[in-house]
Amino acid sequence: WIGASPDGIIFDPLGQPQFGLLEIKCPNIKNYVEAPYLKVISGTLQLKPSYAYYWQVQGQLLTTGMSWCDFVVSAQEDVFIQRIQRDEGVMETMKCKIDMFYFHVFMDKFLALS
């Protein structure tokens, strides 16, 4: 009942482990310039942990069991890449919310219709 659709699985010979996920976003140039999902943290441009894309990546890592995902934003000739590691705290929060929705909202409605 939990699914994910990462854009790819990639191999990094220096990675630990060597296989990870790939998630690509290709915004139009106006949205890229504004980039509400990116911010500078400790002098480095990074995906905001509070943004939906971060939670999307964590959900993909949870579902696939992978340890990392390269998050790529490509807009015209500019490319941003960030390796995002599993965040067990986020995953636990996510799993609790998904379980609550699935078992106590969706299934209640589904079974009531049966």
From TrEMBL:
Pfam families, A to Z: YqaJ (PF09588)
CDD domains assigned to the protein according to its UniProt record, in alphabetical order: PDDEXK_lambda_exonuclease-like
Gene3D superfamilies the record matches: 3.90.320.10
Residue stretches spanning the membrane: none
InterPro entries: NF-kappa-B_Signaling_Reg (IPR051703), PDDEXK-like_dom_sf (IPR011604), Restrct_endonuc-II-like (IPR011335), YqaJ_viral_recombinase (IPR019080)
Span of domain YqaJ viral recombinase: 1-66
Protein name: YqaJ viral recombinase domain-containing protein
Protein species of origin: Nothobranchius korthausae
